[in-house]
Amino acid sequence: MPPSAPVPITPSAVTSVSASTAISSPSVECEGQTEYSRTPTTNSGLYLASSPHLDALDSIAAGTATTAAIAKNNASNRPWIVQKYGGTSVGKFLPAISRTIAPEFLRRNRLAIVCSARSTGTKAGGTTSLLLAAAEQALSAEDDTPEASLSGSVASLSSAREGRASLSRNSSRTGVRTPADLQGVTAGLQATSLETVSQATQSSSDKTVDRIMREHIDAARSIVTKDAAALEQLELDIQDDCERLRDLLLAAKIIEEVSPRSKDMILSIGERLSCRLMVGALGDAGVPAELIGLETIIDAAFLEELSQRGTGTSGQAEGALEQSFYELLAARIGERVSQANATPVITGYFGNVPGSLLSQVGRGYTDLCAALCAVGLAAEELQIWKEVDGVFTADPRKVPTARLIPAITPEEASELTYYGSEVIHPFTMEQAIKRRVPIRIKNVENPTGLGTVIFPAQEIVPGSGDGTKLKQPETPSASGSSTPWGVSSDGAPFNVMVPAATPAARKLPTAVTIKDDVWVLNVHSNRKTLSHGFFARIFSTLDKHGIVVDLISTSEVHVSMALASGQPGLKRPRALDRVKSELGSLGTVSVLREMAILSLVGTQMRHMVGVAGKMFSTLAEGNINIEMISQGANEINISCVIHQKSALKALNLIHYSVLEVSPTPNNRESGTFGRSFF
Asked: Are 525 and 587 in contact (CB under 8 A)?
């Protein structure tokens, strides 16, 4: 990406995606986008400036958004925006977040930030993966440590913690930690953490903890450059968190077990470390920030109140949490966050969830935490910041002509997520959309871009001019505020602006996606079992082995099922062989490997005639064979299974022919990359 000269961001040079001030100025037309009006709206996104690059925001870091201005505009009457940053965003783009993105939003909004565990490269090398590896290493025979060395290490750690406790007692009396105090304890913990433990025990789990600590301390030193005392405090806190991690791993080693709740607590260290870096980076940029830990949000009082409302768990699924649990949790999170004295930075881990957080939600719980936070605060918008401009008509890495979709429905986003495009988990969307909180996908590398808004099609109504306004339901906040969603504290209505081509106005399918590494499991009945018993035995067998079916096509005597080969139920050795053996009593079983699922998605497809015919005729003209066809019950997707070797060709053919996108590649340097074609 070629460098561009910094462009000052002022009301006369930008298009306000949303603003709460009474500023009126001429409209601006941007290439490839619908013309947007600068009429007053709330701040649902950064300004659309004349340059799409981060350099356009340099003037903010130079002093435009001062601490005084941020404090003034962070008053209680300002609407909330909740931002969730993924691990890669925290790992690679923290300076941009702390010096440009956050200060700009704080000019007109109160801001709450939720962070995932840090990552700088592949997902496998991220902090969460390292924490999971450390938990496994703690239980392995190779991780055994001589008793003397282990005892010595524990004694050394206990001594170091006594020094830490003494420092905490002194600071609680005086309210201040002196540089001398910090330097002494930091040095002691450094010696204990990086030398005593690693060298004395030489266990693989300790080495993994050392790596996590080293990576976060190195990151801290690169982002906190203006205040030596603040850096020392940050290093001390990082080391303290890592010592807590060692305690958890040591406990697991002693009892020879990592329980689901223990695994939750181990993974929570990653979010806490990431949030510490965010707080440090914001402070170094002149933005006061406060870490909000939610480890104790689910306490005895919470469970008591939940029991008064109902059981909180579903009788239909063992241990499953009911919606009342999440509603109460959202209100509690909102109360906790709203009490912060500075910009709250919130850990994605939210306490001892009944049945374990990982079991109930999975590794995407930070997205859910952000959604619950947005609901609890009655936020104007939930923003999910990634390293892509938003949701595209196809994967831009595979389809050069892919275009940014300005607005999609939750149903479309769910289908795209399920069939290969990582948008946002459907359950997370459900929590926010149910309370009328729009979700916007934005890019940390292009913060002035509009991104993609996720909101129900029936809530998007035609507005004046060339824009489209989101309908404003009169829904009270989860925290008990009487202020309706969509109305500022002074009573003036605001609108979240999105491009005019909304899901309700589209005349074409929305997007096409591909899911690779799929197996097709075929079962042909031997007619010894009636059809209802035939299906029941198939699915009970798959359920017993924890195997999830993506697509299914059936007749009375034949069932074809598409399975994601990378799912946990198929990762165990010879898992598929055992399933085939058990299903063999029902009839002939066969497996097709190296397949892919091609899915066409769009809310308007249920009202369109000939889409399926055009899709399949296009594939036939491209000499692409179809192994299996399936259409969802909601009629907003049509999927088929093809050979994986034909996946890229099929994706581009459907994108060009059915979505009717010109086969002219995008040119990011010319400013057309990611523009909407609607």
From this structure: yes
* Mean pLDDT, rounded, for 471-491: 34
Residue boundaries of the structural domains of the chain: 123-360, 511-659
Residue length, the chain?
678
Residue with the larger pLDDT of the pair 443 and 141: 443
Largest CA distance in the chain: 82
Tokens (6 digits) for 504: 């309700």
**DSSP assignment of 115-158, as one string?**
EPPP-SS-GGGSHHHHHHHHHHHHHSGGG---HHHHHHHHHHHH
Among 69, 55, 62, 165, CA closest to 108: 69
Give the pLDDT band (50/70/90) at residue 9.
very low
CA–CA separation, 546 vs 539, rounded Å? 10
| C-alpha separations of 36 from 22, 62, 222, 440, 469 in Å | 16, 28, 39, 17, 11
380-419 tens-digit pLDDT:
999 999 998 999 999 998 999 999 999 999 989 988 888 8
Task: Report whether 10 contacts 47 (CB < 8 A).
Answer: no
- Distance, in Å, from the CA atom of 417 to the CA atom of 651, rounded to the nearest integer, reads 16
Query: What would the DSSP string read from start to end of 297-354?
Result: SS-HHHHHHHHHH--SB-SSSTTPBPHHHHHHHHHHHHHHHHT-SSEEEEES--S--T
Higher pLDDT: 10 or 247? It is 247
Classify domain 511-659 by CATH number.
Answer: 3.30.2130.10
Among 242-246, 554-558, 632-636, top mean pLDDT goes to 242-246
Q: Residue 135 and residue 462: Cα distance in Å, rounded?
A: 53
List of residues 6+ apart from 139 with CB closer than 8 A: 252, 253, 256, 257, 258
* pLDDT confidence band for 133 (50 / 70 / 90): very high
SS3 432: helix
3-class state of residue 420 by DSSP: coil
Angle at 544 between CA 529 and CA 431, to 5 degrees: 115
The pLDDT assigned to 189 comes to 47
Q: DSSP assignment of 7-74, as one string?
A: ----TTTSB-SS--S------B--TTS--B--S----SS--B-S--SGGGGHHIIIIIS-HHHHHHHT
> How far is it, in rounded angstroms, from Cα 156 to Cα 243?
11
Q: Are 334 and 75 in contact (CB under 8 A)?
A: no
Query: Is 80 exceeded by the pLDDT of residue 32?
Result: no
| Element at 461 (helix H, strand E) | strand 460-462
Q: Which of 234, 478, 484 is nearest to 336 (CA)?
A: 478
Dist CA 268 CA 291 (whole Å): 14
Q: Check: CB of residue 582 under 8 Å from CB of residue 541.
A: yes
Q: Are strands 343-347 and 110-115 parallel, antiparallel or unpaired?
A: parallel
- Per-residue pLDDT reduced to its tens digit, 177-224: 554 555 554 454 444 444 444 444 458 999 999 999 999 999 999 999
3-state secondary structure 474-533: CCCCCCCCCCCCCECCCCCECCCEECCCCHHHCCCCCEEEEEEEEEEEEEEECCCCCHHH
Are the C-beta atoms of 390 and 449 separated by less than 8 Å? yes
Mean pLDDT of 538-562: 90
pTM to 2 decimals?
A: 0.74
